[in-house]
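pls ignore typos typing on phone
NAP + seq
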Amino acid sequence: MNGAIDRVVITGASSGIGLDLARRFLAEGSRVVVNARDADKLERARVELGGGDRLVAVAGDVSDPDTGPRLAQAAKRHFGGADVLVNNAGIFGAKPFLESTAADLDRFLATNLRGTFLVTRAVAPLLVEAKGGAIVNVGTVLVEQPIGSIPCAAAMCSKGGVHAFTRSLAVELAPHRVRVSCVAPGIVRTPLIGDAADSLAKIHPLGRVGEVSEISDAVLYLARAAFVTGVVLDVDGGYAHGR
Ligand SMILES: NC(=O)c1ccc[n+]([C@@H]2O[C@H](COP(=O)([O-])OP(=O)(O)OC[C@H]3O[C@@H](n4cnc5c(N)ncnc54)[C@H](OP(=O)(O)O)[C@@H]3O)[C@@H](O)[C@H]2O)c1
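k done
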């Protein structure tokens, strides 16, 4: 898949990285199914993205077992299938472990890990049917390189699972020519991080936070890179390599 990418499914596409990704894929001529939980916010994103018959919005919580099949059905019905899945929907929250609860853990696991697993389970058969394609998950650089000032053990249980899932599934789906990779962002300026973003600039050796377009660049690369699978690509201003 070195050239144009035809049919794409993106979760968490009403905001931040996912919204930018939808814009980028559409600008390249792709046909895109976008998803997010909040239907009104997703509809505003659909309008902002220009609507049109190359864009289909399907609202739903990725942790709901019905959402993945609904995304797959929309891709099949409107576009005849799917070539790329981006599991971008995700939540984050810093909280000291000694204050964390079972509910905190369950919340992160539901969206970040169960959501990624269930949507992939539903959409991957379309990629197999297309005889090749790519799944790009979104993890975080904090999985491999924790930092004391951002305590987030509960969130990392889920994102660590996403990194492990990526590697395992890459090997399993390789015979079907379906590649599975993961982008691990550093701190990126999005609504998820809010006004705190720039105060965290100095944890990156490059001395600034990332922009959504820089994460989209990496996702687009991994979606196309025909001899790359199973990688977790840090897009983090050098954060993973020390300070
Ligand atoms: N920003 C960073 O610094 C950073 C760093 C490392 C990793 N990441 C990862 O990058 C991804 C995108 O984050 P972002 O910063 O762009 O966040 P964001 O601006 O908050 O956007 C998150 C998107 O995910 C959707 N979403 C959240 N929970 C969902 C669920 N259960 N089901 C369906 N959609 C859901 C949101 O829609 P609703 O509002 O409708 O729920 C929204 O569209 C996440 O996986 C995040 O963990 C971000």
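Residues 102-129 form the longest helix (28 residues). The beta strands are 7-10, 31-36, 55-59, 84-87, 133-138, 178-185, 232-235. more later
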